[in-house]
Amino acid sequence: METFKRLPTHVGIIPDGNRRWAVTNGLQKKDGYAQGIQPGFALYEQLLELGIREATFYGFTKDNNRREKGQRDAFTKACVDAVRLLSGRDANLLVIGNTDSPAFPPELLKYANQRVHFGRGLINLNFLVNYDWEWDLNHLAEDKTLRSAEISRVDLVVRWGGCRRLSGFLPAQSVYADFYIVDDYWPDFQPTHFLNALRWYQTCDVTRGG
Predict the structure, then answer these.
(1) Are the beta carbons of 149 and 113 closer than 8 angstroms?
(2) Strand 115-118 and strand 10-14: pairing?
(3) Is 93 within 8 Å of 116 (Cβ atoms)?
């Protein structure tokens, strides 16, 4: 494994491009979500090997619920399946999302808004499920704390799929995050994608405006 002088403590992962990958490969859009599970675990192993202490994966957002039912069912199932697989690994899981909404999968309620420890707990993994940035920030205005308050500041956000936008990803924690784009779709994940992001991160300004 390549070594780096500077590693992000907390990495944000936006695994985009599942639907476009499916269409490119002659499948229905809904079929792309299941293909995103294995790349997530490949990256998880890479994070462990590098010694990165925290990562947040974007599952789905309130806005994603505007998609047709087949796609909604597919991305919800992919999130549930990913957590079930993670329960057999070594991680401390925190699922953050609006559990009052019917779009939140009931299978994940026992992991919601509290950190659950699996195995040796080698890394803190946060999973945004039915996440809504307004729902998160409104709680700050009302109760002086974010609903995602247990999630630390993000140092580096890596987005697959070529789009150059944050899409509401943890706006408070990402305020000073560096932002790296991978043009390949998430199901085509390769370890070199993340290594290239870390190589680029070595060159980034660390002053945070100072």
Answers:
(1) no
(2) unpaired
(3) yes
Identity of residue 188: D
pLDDT digits (tens, 9 = 90+) for 37-73: 999 999 999 999 999 999 999 999 999 999 999 999 9
**In which order are the strands placed within the sheet that holds 156-160?**
115-118, 91-96, 124-131, 54-61, 10-14, 156-160, 178-182
Q: Which of 186, 206, 203, 137 is nearest to 24 (CA)?
A: 186
In this structure, the strands spanning 91-96 and 115-118 are: antiparallel
Residue with tokens 């499920």: 129
Contact in structure between 177 and 156 (CB atoms under 8 Å): yes
Instruction: Say whether pLDDT at 165 is over 80.
Output: yes
Show the tokens assigned to 125.
Answer: 């993994």
**Global confidence as pTM:** 0.96
Instruction: With residue 126 as reference, give the H or E element that holds it.
Output: strand 124-131
Euclidean distance between CA atoms 21 and 47, whole angstroms: 24
Give Cα separations from 88 to 41, 47, 80, 118, 207 (angstroms): 12, 17, 14, 7, 39
Q: CA separation (Å) from 150 to 7, 123, 154, 189?
A: 21, 14, 12, 28
Q: Given CA atoms 58, 126, 154, 62 in this order, what sign does their dihedral have?
A: positive
DSSP 196: H
